[in-house]
Design goal:
Length: 162
């Protein structure tokens, strides 16, 4: 039996066209992936965080009670005879009042708690963001009523000198 060569050539030709179409579609897919990969490095990077403002510190001498301590320089000092107030954005951060003897804590406020100050346990009132307590100045026997923001207590504790 003799077979015709025309249908075989047609099938081979159609097979080549099919392989060509499949190759073109595969190339388009690869091109889409490459464009996406090229796009990724071109994305705008997130801005780097701004460096924190470096704090500087100043030493304050409370002459009426013979004490000194270090405080952040961004606090605003308001001084009167026998008292000093350090504030930031109209918020009281540290206030000191020099008294001849200690005054008891108000009975209508929260009950006193124990905090460690200069390696001693002392009574203090916790008002949420601040501690209120009394410190006795050993050399002159006066008492300082301190109201201080909790964040500043470690600095005040470590730098207070009589």
């Amino acid at each position: 039996m003799f077979r015709k060569k025309g249908p075989i050539f047609l099938l081979i030709f159609l097979l080549f066209i099919l392989i060509f179409v499949i190759g073109v579609r595969y190339g388009q897919t690869i091109e889409r992936v490459n464009k996406f990969i090229d796009y990724l490095p071109k994305l705008t990077p997130a801005p780097s965080p701004t460096p924190a403002k470096e704090l500087s510190y100043l030493r304050y001498h409370f002459d009426s009670c013979s004490v000194s301590f270090v405080y952040p320089s961004d606090l605003t000092l308001t001084e009167t005879s026998g008292s000093a107030r350090f504030s930031k954005d109209n918020q009281n951060m540290i206030s000191l009042e020099c008294m001849s003897r200690g005054a008891p804590f108000p009975s209508d406020g929260p009950p006193p708690i124990q905090i460690t100050f200069q390696n001693k346990k002392i009574a203090a009132i916790n008002t949420g963001k601040t501690f209120i307590f009394n410190v006795t100045v050993p050399k002159i026997g006066k008492v300082i009523r301190v109201s201080i923001n909790k964040e500043l207590l470690p600095l005040f504790d470590s730098t207070l000198t009589f």
